[in-house]
Structure formats: structure tokens, C-alpha cells
Amino acid sequence: MPVTCTDRTRSRAVATSPGAREDGDMKLQNADEVLRRLEGDPAAARVYGEPHETADGTTVIPVAKPVGVFVIKDGRATWKPAVDTTRIAMLGILVGLASAVFAGVAMVRRPPWPDLYGDIAQLRSS
User: Where in the chain are the domains?
Assistant: First the structure.
């Protein structure tokens, strides 16, 4: 059942999650209940990977790229977003190159130093 946001900047319909109440607020769920629900849903298998348990008892649930993973440790679930540092670095390089090109074009079209001879030549001809 979609819930419509009352904020004017967000007028699109937002689908509620399985653990949401009718008013759209999230409620806390037991980690085991979430895992059981994910195992039974074939659509979730495309988004969520198999849960893995580490040596210290932490359960890690991978999520489809580029979203992140859920980490369940000591009964508490936390969300760890995936940050692609390569993409961030590439964006910085592209912005730097674009600004260098624009600065070079601006300098070729009009040099930063004053045109002394052009001003004097205009005064002599008038």
C-alpha cells in the first residue's frame, strides 16, 4: 500500500516496507524475523545475498551493488553503505580537467594582462 508524503518537495508515492505501520513509521523488528522473511521472498533473493556469519558472531547480509550491507551483531542491525571511492576520485579528476579546459579557453580568448598597445592605438587614431 503506497503512502503519499505530505511534504510538498516530495510529492511522489513511497511504498511502505514490510515492517512499516500504516502511518509510514518504521517499527523495530527482530533480526531472525527479517532473515526468515528474506529467505521466503524470491524477489529479495535478487537484491539480498546469502547471510554470512563471521567468527565473532556477526551476521553480514550483502545487498546488491551499489547499496551496501546489513550487519547484525549482538542482536542489533546496522546499515553499512557501500562507498565507491574510485567513482568519487574519477569525478574529482573529471571536474579538475573540465575546469582546466575552461580556464585555458578563457585565457586564449582574452589574456589576463592588459592590452597596452591597443588602448594607445585607439587614442592616436581619434
Answer: 2-81, 85-125
